[in-house]
Design goal:
Layout: E1 8-12, H1 20-29, E2 33-37, H2 43-60, E3 65-69, E4 75-76, E5 85-87, E6 92-96, E7 107-108, E8 123-126, E9 131-139, E10 142-149, E11 151-153, E12 158-160, H3 173-184, E13 189-192, H4 198-214, E14 224-229, H5 232-236, H6 238-244, E15 247-251, H7 252-258, H8 264-277, E16 282-285, H9 300-311, E17 316-319, H10 321-324, H11 329-345, H12 361-376, E18 381-385, H13 390-396, E19 404-408, H14 411-417, E20 423-427, H15 434-447, E21 456-461, E22 473-478
Parallel strand pairs: 1-2, 1-17, 2-3, 3-13, 6-7, 13-14, 14-15, 15-16, 16-17, 18-19, 18-21, 19-20
Antiparallel strand pairs: 4-12, 5-11, 6-10, 8-9, 8-12, 9-10, 21-22
Length: 480
Amino acid sequence: MTFFKHTKIGATIGPSCQDPLVLEKMLKAGMNFARLNFSHGTYETHTEMIKNVRALEAKSDTPIAVLQDLQGPRIRVGALPEAGVKIKEKETVTFNTKIDTYNGGDIPLDNPELHTFLKPGERILIDDGHLEVHITAVTGSQITATVIEGGTILSHKGINLPDSTVGIPALSEKDRADLRFGVTHGVDMVGLSFVATASDILDVRFLIKQIVAEEKITLASPIFIIAKIERRIAVANIKEIMDATDGVMVARGDLGLELPAAEVPLVQKRIIDLANGLAKPVIVATQMLNSMQASRRPTRAEVSDVANAVIENADALLLTNETASGQYPVLAVETMSDIIITTEKSSYDRVAFPVRKKGTALDFAIADMSRLLADEVSARLILAASISGDTGRLISHVRPSLPILVATQSDIVWRQLNVSWGVEPFRLPPCHSIEELVERSVSYIKEHKLAKTSDRMIIIAGEPVGQAGNVNLVEVRDIK
């Protein structure tokens, strides 16, 4: 059996990989889930991408979760001349939230209420922090600032406000329309951008339920909400956000502008530890292999970044521009897979038991025992059944050394589980006894050459089989 890759890979789908043949090569290279970036594209292109992913999933019989990444209330510069507007160091510039188009004076900003949240002394970062100004005065809708780092401002470039508390809802009107599109087109997970508090998660959860009811959609299990941590206020509220969300993404692009750069690796580690303690999947994203947009080789620093995220026990790593618009989407996935596998083979990937914060004492005992048995018994894999996916994630969070095969009945849980570390989900029809579960699972295991007769497996199950929250058995068996 080839070495099993525990850490999962997400790939952003875009122009560079919209061809179904390229997508298939990415799957074979190690892609586990697909991200659709709703900051770009049209409903027509997103529909086509979802169609291509589902077709590949059916062809390969491999779960590919679709993550709809909502744009969020990103603040942008308004319409400027094609050549942009140049600003110079120490120059005084004025922004205006009440105009849409530049006419030679104030620079427009696209949020009409933004001036009410800003104060003198705060910074405005433009175009991913390439330009920086410091606010000196706010008069009505006009924001006057001194240029600290100049350059050319182009139309619709993003704005970051690392020092400001901006009371803008995490869901814009565009996000609400996009969310309805995603729910009706069968996405498995929704990435919520610019989360500030737990209430942002609850608002989205309620809206999804409302859309499901209005559209008369039947879901075997709820759509996952992934909280994207990219604001200073989200870091401050991280514990309550983690309790409310289904999973979390360390979105280091905007986070690196909101916080001092030196703090970002420490925040990343803290978020991963919190997520592991709650048995919730955690994704690390942004610029992981950024140079591979135009180069066949990553930098040494990028390789170290990926390896360290693996050692820190992230569930999944996400490629963004590398696969969406880069020149080498398949090679980027192959490279990330190679780094993951090499790192996981090393002695540096072994960790102590996480600090558990979710589940009952029995849950803890069973999860711990699966890890202990994986370390002590000469078994090939762990087999579990999970209706909701929680059992699979509970076992995953103690990071056993063996592959975790999780049988489930629904397509959405099958896909969602493929974002969790070490879990290989597969579908089975409802089983009525542990013996039936084992027999059907062994057929799957042998068919996919995951083990052979006389190999040992660790079984995590419960009676009656198929009843959620009823795991009460750990057993070691030889495969017959």
